Amino acid sequence: MSRRSVESLGETVATLAPRSATLVEPPEMERELARALNTMGVTRLYSHQLEAYERVRAGENVIVATATASGKSLCYKIPAFENALISASNRALFLYPTKALAQDQLQKIQKLKLRGVYPATYDRDTPKALRSELRRRANVILTNPDMLNVGLLPSHDSLWADFFRNLKIIAVDEAHLLRGVFGSHVAAVLRRLRRVAELHGANPRFVLTSATIANPLELAEVLTGLPFELVDRDGASSGERRVVFRNPPLKDEEKGDRRSMLTEGAFVFSKLVAQGVRTIAFAKSRKTAELIYRYAADRLGPNLARRISPYRAGYTVRERREIEGRLFSGELLGVVSTNALELGVDVGALDAVVCCGYPGSVASIWQQWGRAGRSTEPSLAVYIAGRDSLDQYLYENPEKVLGRRVEAARLTLENPYILGPHLLAAAHEAPLEDGDEQYFGYGYGEVVKDLVASEALVESGGRMHYTRGDNPAWEISLRSADSASVMVADGEGEVIGSVEARRAPMELHPGATYLHRGRAYEVEDLNLPAHQALVRRVPNRYYTRVKVETDVEVLEESENRDLANGAKLHWGRVRTTDQVTLYKKIQVQDSREIGVFPLDLPPTTFETRGLWITLPPLPPPKGNVRPNFVEFLGALHAAEHAMIGLLPLFAMCDRGDIGGLSIALHRQTRKPTVFIYDGYPGGVGISERGYDTFEELARDTLGILVRCPCKKGCPACVQSPKCGNWNEPLSKDGSVAVLRYMLGQVSRYPTL
């Protein structure tokens, strides 16, 4: 693209210089392996590849944390292939977060034509007729944590005994994605894997690869429970990268109303595609990916629209592989994707990446940008700010992306909703003993006691047995603290997608608009007991938003500390209840509200962890000075929204992972209270991080509110796209007063 064309997309905030590679001579290795590397054009190694190889050869566990496209996969492939060539009985297990990535890596390994190395993917798509032969012959198994959970570990003593007995290398690719609920589940699966391998007399080495994050060593050790060595001196080359930030223009300065990020994303994406620039646009959700694709297709016209496609989880395997192949071959010029393509699936050479809004972490921004300009080729990286406070904060402070130390990935093994089901699965694999605490951490004993008390486990001879006839691993969904999901079927009975059961009342209520591959469907029926939703095709004219009544009950207070002016900060265990009561239908073209409709759905309840801030009781009226209760509730509500909006920058999560409630008089605290809680049963560490960094979070939030040019509140400061109360009531001025009061900057009670 010309400089003028690039400048029309936004403000260039940086041009990142290219970096030369640090290449070293490879070590002496098996001749067949050296030949295969030569066929790849690898005659020398990057310095980090050699360091990782030498550490693994010395018997160490290694995590490699270098940039995207730095050849990290060779760090585990070379020692695994070498072991297989030394002895055909030696085995290796490669774990990828998705089936698509495993298939992509299988094709790369097969191209090496290594005699003595027999790779195979083993997942739910593997034909049953082939599985026995693969178990017998393959010495490199590529799979995902889901299949390891339900397929390999439960059958370790019957179908997989030889494999686990000879297991030498375990590789975990894209480990930076293993955070929150998914990471906590995978940590439990890896602990079960260690336990099973040791039951068979094996002591495999772990090799983890990760994008650049702040705590790679801590992450590896929490995931596996083992000591690790860190390899993070990147020896790979990189091309010049031009970084452009774009802010949607203001439509109404007083209201702070900007053009939609969806419209802006479609504009930038279609402009790049129209100029022949091979582009991926990343969206934050399935719905936004579908909408950006639809808007871009309308802008491009029918001829070029055939050369773009949406891509997201929820598509069938055949659909995803078709899109990947068309992008790799050049048939497609562009794809609008969720983070499903953030991973290392090979889709060929790309020129530009457009990030449509904050994807949940600064690390993810860099990971997405790294999908373009691989090797030494130049690339364009575009960040389009959304309307919310965090997007606007990053737009105003690009150094927080360019210069900020990338966040830490966090997970927990202390969530009984996650650990409990895995202990049942582990007991099914082999009876549990006291010594198994070494695998599952100090929360092990308490959770086991609860499982015995509930008769899920039976104690006999000092060991805990799982005596039911089923396989408990099948009840575990690794990507949710709640294992259940609702299947979405069209009028012909074909399943076209799925939604977590706890999200179904919000996303699949009768009358809801459901998007799939750019097509709109209306939900005709939601059967929660049967976990089914029936939809029908409709014109893509409307979208829907629900109204949710929320209640939070404090179950146990674990910590607290004083803030200023009698305000207090608390953290502990809470129970939340959400009741979807209404939904409104909004016209896509002009955001005009069409109508509001009642709903009659059961409440959704779960226990989690949360922080809450209590203010002193409202002061009694003095003369003519009386509290404005609506204004006061709006102040609390706006402060809650603003803090939730910025918390993802501290906790490495998505805004949708956090829930909140503001109330002028809570029935338990008997005070004005603001709750901020983890949006997952049991909690995953988000609110705990908020508690630990609360003063900094509150100060930065206050800065956003003070600097925002709007008068009464806008999406860039206090309005939330996730608000179940449709952003009512909100008081921007009141939220400033609340934050200043709890930080001790003023002593006058808010709203007085």
Automatic annotation (TrEMBL):
Protein name: ATP-dependent RNA helicase, DEAD/DEAH box family
Transmembrane segment boundaries: none
Pfam families: DEAD, Helicase_C, MZB, WHD_HRQ1
Domain Helicase ATP-binding: 53-231
Start and end residues of each Helicase C-terminal domain: 267-417
GO MF entries: 3'-5' DNA helicase activity; ATP binding; nucleic acid binding
Domain of life according to the entry: Bacteria
Gene Ontology annotations of biological process type: interstrand cross-link repair; nucleotide-excision repair
Cross-referenced InterPro entries: DEAD/DEAH_box_helicase_dom, Helicase_ATP-bd, Helicase_C-like, HRQ1_WHD, MZB, P-loop_NTPase
Keywords of this entry: ATP-binding, Helicase, Hydrolase, Nucleotide-binding
